[in-house]
Design brief:
single chain, mainly beta, Methylamine Dehydrogenase, Chain H, five-stranded mixed β-sheet, cytoplasm, POC1 centriolar protein homolog A, WD repeat, cell projection, WD40/YVTN_repeat-like_dom_sf
Length: 383
């Protein structure tokens, strides 16, 4: 059995303070804050600086289902089962404005890259677009015939993609407000969807335990992964475009290498379903949340060679027939409550505790550096 390598992802910190399942996580653009939403009806804004007090924002009358920072980091949007969207100023005051967004649970909120628009998705079967600063309703997209779980803008803001319990993923043109294409390959509810950083591909996960990647120009199915043993609850592209992280009700996170079409790592951190996962804006870290009420921050490590690539054009995934992921991978069991530090959302911040080497049981390490990636050593930026 090989010992963990420096390139392996590592659990850096726990954040504890939610009183029910965590539903959503998002890093601020400057990496100084991490927001999380929960079934406990609260948002938490955690500070990445050690021993800093977290902010608890109360305002929603029911479960918070989604959170998203604006591109500037000056605003934080949240959606709730109380049918509203709130826009918060993520500081100690926690001031927010609220608007009645939908006639049912709001499942998803996402800012456009220019910060001017917000897209929301709801159990009322609609996707709605709003003016951020005026918080004014602009238009609705209404072709789904069941709950809409997720909606995201493309990186250039011209397209919107949505995922629904009607088993489809729909691609919309923001200007014409028309559905450009419906992707119908999922065999069950589609829980999450997002754009590749290049804007040329989308990835979606669903209740059929699969992840699928399509080209939005040709609408071809590029990759199909059957890796999880339960529903895929969330996914996030690394900003280089070379990796995808997924979260699942089977309690694991999985890291996929999109260029080779294979599974790299399986991470066992959460006790119970993993409900959300998101990379930081640089990709140096990713955060996850679960039904165990915990928020975990992981250091990517495996992407060190990609930091020099971020200023270059991202490479979209290529066509890989039958990307089943049935190749060797790294397994990381993380004992509950163990991390390099623990942070508390309670009244008193806890002292950080050191993490002994808990990643002791690993499979044979076969992951080599890809030839297409630069081999320069890039200094990792500090938190």
């Amino acid at each position: 059995m090989a010992a963990p390598c420096p390139e392996d992802p590592s659990l850096e910190r726990h954040f504890k303070g939610h009183r029910d399942a965590v539903t959503s996580v998002d890093f601020s653009p400057n990496m100084k804050q991490l927001a999380s939403g929960s079934m406990d009806s609260c948002l938490m804004v955690w500070h990445m600086k050690p021993q800093s007090r977290a902010y608890r924002f109360a305002g929603h009358k029911d479960a918070v289902t989604c959170v998203n920072f604006s591109p500037s980091g000056h605003l934080l949007a949240s959606g709730s089962r109380d049918k509203t969207v709130r826009i918060w100023v993520p500081n100690v005051k926690g001031e927010s404005t609220v608007f009645r967004a939908h006639t049912a649970t709001v499942r998803s909120v996402h800012f456009c890259s220019d910060g001017q628009s917000l897209v929301t998705a709801s159990d009322d079967k609609t996707v709605k677009v709003w003016s951020t600063h005026r918080q004014k309703f602009l238009f609705s997209l209404s072709q789904h015939i069941n709950w809409v779980r997720c909606a995201r803008f493309s990186p250039d803001g011209r397209l919107i993609v949505s995922a629904s319990d009607d088993k489809t993923v729909k691609l919309w043109d923001k200007t014409s407000r028309e559905c450009v294409h419906s992707y119908c390959e999922h065999g069950s509810f589609v829980t999450y969807v997002d754009f590749h950083p290049s804007g040329t591909c989308i990835a979606a996960g669903g209740m059929d335990n699969t992840v699928k990647v399509w080209d939005v120009r040709t609408h071809r199915l590029l990759q199909h992964y059957q890796l999880h043993s339960a529903a895929v609850t969330a996914l996030s592209f690394h900003p280089s475009g070379n990796y995808l992280v997924t979260a699942s009700s089977d309690s694991t996170l999985k890291i996929l290498d999109l260029l080779e079409g294979r599974l790299l790592y399986t991470l066992h951190g959460h006790q119970g379903p993993a409900t959300t996962v998101a990379f930081s804006r640089t990709g140096e870290y990713f955060a996850s949340g679960g039904s165990d009420e915990q928020v975990m921050v992981w250091k990517s490590n495996f992407d060190a060679a990609d930091f020099g690539e971020l200023t270059k054009a991202q490479r979209p995934p290529t066509m890989l027939a039958g990307s089943s992921g049935n190749r060797p991978e790294m397994e990381f069991p993380i004992p509950p409550g163990r991390g390099r530090s623990q942070e508390s959302g309670q009244s008193q911040p806890q002292e950080p505790s050191s993490m002994p080497q808990t990643l002791t049981s690993t499979l044979e390490h076969i992951v080599g550096q890809l030839d297409v990636l630069t081999q320069k050593n890039i200094n990792e930026s500090s938190i």
